[in-house]
Design goal:
The protein is mostly helical and 217 residues long. It has helices at residues 10-22, 41-44, 66-76, 87-104, 110-120, 124-148, 163-177, 186-196, 199-204; strands at residues 2-5, 27-30, 54-56, 63-64. The protein folds into two domains: 2-76, Glutaredoxin (3-Layer(aba) Sandwich); 87-205, Glutathione S-transferase Yfyf (Class Pi), Chain A, domain 2.
């Protein structure tokens, strides 16, 4: 498989983590979002939307949108499963993931921040405050749902790693990139810590990718 990603892309982090967990070998091609490489013909021919990630598997057309890619990976490489068996449980896992993927992450990506600046003359400090607001809103929703539901265990749904956990660690990475205070979210923190002990997830973390800034000692 060939993954198009970038160290700072949280959506690419999700896919990278899933591939690692499944033990699926892949090579990653960097598309530098800070240099606008997502708009080059070489990438728009892969994904006309000019967003990351994209995944090439065999001779078929490129796969795009991280949640669709995650479910494709889970269906084509079913072990270990990333969705529980019961329909209601699967719905819960998807809903937790979508708090992040659908409600929060789309509001903080570069093209939204850039549009706020160009179209409405929103300065960088205000755009960063905007991002922190929506990241914190998702943290609030996650914490409330996870802390109040007896189905929450070591991970978001019992002791089984799921798509929700993969999205959660990406959200935590984003929260730290934008310097959001995550101390008020103990369940969120606990689950993230459990996930980061998994080698495949830790290895996929944005700060462990080529081009990322070095971690503080």
């Amino acid at each position: 498989m060939k993954l198009y990603g970038f160290w700072r892309s949280l959506a690419a982090f999700r896919v990278r983590a899933a591939l690692n967990i499944k033990g699926v070998p892949f090579e990653e091609t960097t598309v530098d979002l800070t240099k606008g490489e997502q708009f080059a013909d070489s990438y728009t021919s892969v994904n006309p939307q000019s967003v990351l990630p994209a995944l090439i598997d065999g001779d078929g057309p490129p796969l795009f949108q991280s949640m669709a890619i995650l479910e494709y990976i889970d269906e084509t490489h079913p072990q270990p499963p990333l969705l529980p068996k019961a329909p209601r449980d699967r719905a819960r896992v998807r809903a937790l993931a979508l708090i992040i993927v659908a409600d929060a992450h789309p509001l903080v990506i570069p093209r939204i921040r850039n549009y706020l600046g160009k179209a409405y003359d929103v300065d960088e400090r205000t755009r960063e405050d905007w991002c922190r607001h929506w990241i914190a809103q998702a943290c609030n929703a996650l914490e409330a749902n996870l802390a109040s539901d007896p189905r929450t265990g070591k991970f978001c749904h019992g002791d089984m790693l799921t798509l929700a956990d993969i999205c959660l660690v990406g959200h935590m990475a984003g929260a730290k990139l934008f310097e959001v205070d995550v101390k008020p979210y103990p369940t969120f923190n606990r689950i993230n810590d459990s996930c980061m002990k998994i080698e495949g997830i830790a290895h996929a973390h944005p700060l462990n990718q080529p081009g990322a800034p070095k971690r503080a000692a």
